[in-house]
Structures are given as structure tokens and as C-alpha cells.
Design brief:
single chain; 298 residues; mainly alpha; 13 helices; 0% strand; globular
Amino acid sequence: MNNQQKSELLLAGVILARSTSFVLSKSAMNSLTPFNLLAVRFLTAFLFLAVIFGKKLIHIRKNELKYGFLLGMLFTIMMGCELTGLRATDSATTSFIENSAMIFVPILQFVFMKKKLKGAEGLRIALAVLGIGFLTLGTSGGLLRSGCVYLLGSAVFYAAAILVTNIASRKGDPLMIGITQVFTIGFLSLLLSCTLEQPRLPQTGAEWSMVLGLAIICSGFGFTLQPVAQRGTTAERAGMMCALSPLSASLQGVVILNDQMSTSKLAGCIMILLSLLVPVLLQSLRRPLARRLAFNHS
């Protein structure tokens, strides 16, 4: 197994760990407000990480603090939009729309980095837009209802975070950047909760169980190790692998939260999944064709 394969295996674990956050957050927000939940979750995760990596944190560099803070800001906005949207819709729809972020990765690369769109990107974008349309079909306000608008905002900021992570992970120790990112999300969420909400600590064993699950599995492992995992692969590959998240979140939502999967939602999920997998499918089709041409030429 080469280094890229090891990085992508770790990234798959990170994505699957973070996919559990949709179900846990949906349940936790029955009693906790969005930024209150984020503050407790990420500051708890930071304390957990500080105990383990305290000696390394003492020697953290300015560059790592800078990129960790920048990523923390992007993820705070992204997750604020995510939880606001999650309150208005089910976990499967939230995950599929948020992970359509992958269509925004090449768009943002084109706008800010002048990187031309490849032939397959147009097909991916068309499938994803159709998929989002089917996911919101028959609901009041459709795509423009408040929940979906927030989720689309979450997708854009998620795409921006993936691109910045791809750069930041090569500018310093990605683990230190990841820990700084976790602290920043917790700190900024606490400020926003104090300003917009009435923050409190979890009161019951059930609340603490959900918060600790989110803190250790989703934040401590999922968020902290994303820069480490992305260092060994490309932003495009990282984007495609995020197809794992909505599949996992959908299954968890149906099994644990009894989310309903209508025909239109199922069609939307399939289209978005296809949009994420188009490069893989095209590559698998090209290989037999290339072999056939090579055989005929010989």
C-alpha cells in the first residue's frame, strides 16, 4: 500500500466518523441550540486533544496557528449553516446537499485559481443540481426554503475549506493545524452562542453522551485528522471520497431516526451520488477502451 492509498484510507475513516454527526446533532438539538452545541462539542474535543498532544502544542508555529484559525473560521460558518439547515430537514437530505460541496470545488478553483473545468465537471454539476432539485421536490418553498438555502451555503464553505486544507496541510504540521482548527471552531461558536443564544452546559446523561460522541469521534478524530489525511492526496480526490458521508448518514437516519425516504428524495440522492462518482466511472470505462486500442495496435 503506497502513501496515497494510506492517506485515502485514513480520509475514508475520517469521513465515515464525521457522518455520524448528522444523527447525533439532530438528536442533541432537541435540547441544545446550534452554536451552544458546537461550542461544547469542539471545546471538549480540544481539551481531549490537549491532554494527548500537550507537549507538541507548546512548540506550535505561527504558520500552523494562522492556517488553523483560517480553517476554523470557514468550518464555523459551514457548521453553523449545517446545523441550522439540519433543524429544518432530515439527516439524509442535509448530508447529500452539504456534500454536493464537491461540485463547488472545481467551480471555486476556476474562479480563484483560474483552473479550467474538465469535460466531466459539467456533467457532475448538472447531475448535482438536478439531484438537489429532486431532494427538495414537493416541499414548501422547494430549493429556496430556509433550510436548503443554509445547506447550500454550508456546501460552498465546505468546498472552500477543502481547498484551503489542501494548501494548509503542506505548510506545517497538519496535526497542529487540525488541533488549532478544533479550538477555533469551539471558541468562535462560544462567542456566537453568547451573542445569539442562551448557552448552557448539557444537563442530562443522554445530552453528555451525545456531546462526548460528537467531541471524540466526529471532532477529535474526524476534524483533527482531515489535514493529516489530505496531505497525501489531492483536493479533487478528497472531494470525490466525500460521497461516503451521505451514504452513511442516510442509512443511519433511516435506521436510528426513522427518516422517511420518498421516491423523489431517493432519485435526488442517486443523482448526487452519481455526480460525485462521475470521474471514477469515466476512468473505469476508459481503461478497457485503452487496453482494446493497445491490443488492436499491436
